[in-house]
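Quick one:
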Amino acid sequence: MKFIRILLVCLLVITLASCGNSNEEVSSEKMIIKFTDAGWDSMKLNNEIAGYIIENGFGYDTDTIPGSSAATWLGQKKGEISVNMETWSDNIPDYDETIKSGEIVELGMNMEDNKQGIYVPTYLIKGDEKRGIEPMAPDLKNVKDLPKYKDLFKDPEEPSKGRLYNAPATWIVSQTIETKHKLYGLKDTYTLFAPGSDTSLATSLASAYEKGEPWVGYYWEPTWISGKYDLTLLKENKYSDELWNDNYNCEFKPTKVTITVHKDMMEKTPEVIGLFKKYKLSSKDIAKALAYMQENDESIENTAIWFLKENEEIWTKWIDEDTKNKVQEKLKDM
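Output:
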């Protein structure tokens, strides 16, 4: 009996020790950093740049969660998404309210020099002597000038009207452009065409540009398009809160493109939070990288590696010396 009791005690000790190790392993597991992927290239590139540093410098696994801008914002509020590297705050109706509630934490500004609105290729206004293109709309300066040029931008499906390209329907900003379309009296002269994706929108613009043809529609900076082509942002009323709240009756103001995280990250990933607080790029930085990607037919992943190799003076300021050395060592193998 004494032997049996000793055996049972030993088994109990072993079992408790095993449970203790298991719990310790679970508690020491690092969370997976899940990035928002709302579809556009600059966001994807920011995800890859930050993700490379996080994986190779801090040892976390990363993932991306695709979806519309509205759906991914909701997912971040629920904690299903960890971070949004490009939160276009002014395009999100409940942004301030959500930040104030503490559900999502704003860590800093990613880009301050961004633009968005209705663009045309500059050669339509000024011509392009090198390409033998004469000005087609020399007096086109303002969005309100568009009705007199409807025949220039003829819609192939409805030739009596021009075609104005909108943002993809899944983007929150597409609703703003719809309102502007009515506000500026364009409904009678232009159809509002919704491309299926940002790729479709970019393809339509690039195709027209390469052929020297007319194109008008919503676009934004930074993109590979803005890095490669000469575009003109058509004027609107100067921005004011009063006019913006009156059916968006003015230009877009430069949007606060912020880095936001779900509140759980603040305690669980303090070193990553430190990176995000210092992370900052310019529209020019992003546009240059995206133009490189397009011209060299590179993937987003390889473009991020190219960017990190070419711009050490930028990203090494975001992290400590030890983390920098780990990332640089990994880049040597790439």
